Amino acid sequence: MAEGGVASGASGFQIIALGTAQTIAWASSAYLPAVISQPVAHTLGVSTSTVFAAYSFGLLVMAALGPVIGRSIDRHGGRGVLCFSNVVFVAGLLLLGSASSLFMLFAAWAVIGAGMALGLYDAAFAALVRQHGTQARLSITGITLLAGFASTIGWPLTSAVVAASDWPTACLMWAAAHLLIALPLNWRTLAPGASLLPSAELASATAHPDDIAGSRRAFVLVAVFGTATSFVTSAMAAHLPGLLQALGVAAGLAIAASALVGPAQVAARAIEFVASKRLRVHPLSTARVAVTLHPVGGLVLLIAGGTLWAPALFALLHGAGNGLITIAKGTLPLALFGASGYGVRQGVLAIGQRLAQAAAPFLLALILEHWGGGVAILLTGALSGIGLLALTGIKRTASAAPIQ
Question: Angle of helix 121-132 relative to helix 137-147, nearest 10 degrees?
Answer without folding.
Answer: 150
